[in-house]
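Submission checklist for the structure archive. All mandatory fields must be present; incomplete records are returned to the submitter.

[x] Identifier: lactoylglutathione lyase
[x] Organism: Coffea arabica
[x] Residue count: 366
[x] Sequence attached
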Amino acid sequence: MVRILPMASSIRPSLSSFRSAAAAGPPSRFAAPFASPSHNSCRPLSLLHLGSVPQSLSFGLKASKLLRGEGSSTAVSAAGNIAQASTAATEENVLEWVKKDKRRLLHVVYRVGDLDRTIKFYTECLGMKLLRKRDIPEERYTNAFLGYGPEDSHFVIELTYNYGVDKYDIGAGFGHFGIAVEDVTKTVDLIKAKGGKVTREPGPVKGGKTIIAFIEDPDGYKFELLERGPTPEPLCQVMLRVGDLERAINFYEKAYGMELLRTRDNPEYKYTIAMMGYGPEDKSAVIELTYNYGVSEYDKGNAYAQIAIGTDDVYKTAEAIRLSGGKITREPGPLPGINTKITACLDPDGWKTVFVDNIDFLKELE
């Protein structure tokens, strides 16, 4: 059904990432679950303050000293020029660093109402493996990680079950997950035999030739099955709807360092898609951004949570996100009681992403 080529880990952390690393604690959760389906956000975490003075502030202090020593308008002008030049240089350096940062999609996080039922469906119908499972009774939730290969080299799913919550609202903004298979028809037949729900029978994609089908898991999440040859990354897509495609593309390029792999406009069906990622679609997981003509906003529900991305420096990542107009929802730093450094943000459409320190992430898997 799903044939997987071996994939080497794309995380190659630099030695500089070891700064401030301490002994690894118990695994962290990048998306704190919530106890009630009426909430649309994850449990808040206390913000951690950075102790260093930003470079732009440092230049501002120098300018202030210059102004105190020189009362002339020339001094004021010189100080202003220094500050502006410093800010511009800092922004340019940060955004250029983003392009060189070692990033990849780590996992996608969402909530389910019956963990065992979902694990059974993913393993028996979709051919995934249960990679690990963790129960956090003091926080009243359980996580399960599933995928087609080890977490240090593959994009995987992180399921969250919150005690006592059996249903969530998926909303209209989340689209689907994509899974590459060698034979869509055989996969659909297997899913039907297991009692799965097929919402779109196998056939060519609208306006194209690729054979696809759509199914739903027990919680109503949609999966697109795409017919492809062997691939190292069968869990290959996450589709999210956006209200301004050009704005979203620009943000994902600048703030997230992703590459625009391709776009496709389909005026007959009034939508446009853009594929964004850190590598080619046939070898890497990608984000599929979809713009539906005339729709600028979507209800996101409370089921889908976020995507996690690896980075060599969460502090620089947060700075780049701010410079690109993103909203930081968790300041960069280690999680309380754990060594893993993260930062979290929202894109212009309100989709959440968590960036995780590469070195710390690998330590969690040990």
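[x] Structure attached
Curator remark: The chain is about 25% helix and 30% strand. The mean pLDDT is 83.
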